[in-house]
Prior knowledge:
By secondary structure, this protein is an alpha/beta fold. It has helices at residues 30-33, 36-42, 57-60, 64-78, 91-102, 120-128, 148-155, 161-164, 181-188, 205-216; strands spanning 2-6, 12-13, 16-21, 47-53, 83-89, 109-113, 170-175, 196-199, 229-230.
Amino acid sequence: xxTHLQAASPGARADTLLVFLPGAFLKxxxxxxxxxxxxxREHNLAADxxxxxxxxxxxxxxxxxxxxxxxVIEPQRARGYKSIWLVGISIGGFGALIHELARPGRVxxxxxxxxxxxxxxLGAEILKAGGLRAWRQPDGPPPDDEADRKLWPWLQQYADxxxxxxxxPLYLGYGLSDRFAANHRLLAEVLPEGHVFTTEGxxxxxxxxxxxxxxxxxxxxxxHSAAPVxxxxxx
Length: 235
């Protein structure tokens, strides 16, 4: 994966890294153009930013999880980051979630902005059952091996205070008219108070930028106070 690292302080490395995952057919530089990086700096957060060119083809060929794990998460852990958060938009939010599902415990928090959460019929099945708390995965072998068949049972852990202590905190943001909003609402119902953010509008940058700025006011991220750690750059 092509990545672009921006340090919070010139010539230094923070303890926290925010890894941005774009939506389908979006570019990593879009996060800069739409003010995501500048918003981090405006909030004086002691967090480096890594923009990742997570091509949508990686989801189609099912190589995304390993590419993110081996090409981004593990190398950055080895460089000394104590806390890594994934920030994903649309299919990038889906990618952040399925990475944690497949590689548990490797990140410290997830921000999912208008995430794709799977197929509408499965969401309708969950809604018909009374929501994610009441839904039970059908007995027997699943009708297919699509990722959402595993994702929704994993997301159910957020409905259980005991189970949710063992998975990263999840912050969800979405537009009320987003095309994926029906599934977003199913997830929102089981997340803790203060972890769900909404805005008017649909599935586009103005909504995502508004949500990101709302979230930055409350995300448990460090602010600048201590002396920065010298940054080492690979040759």
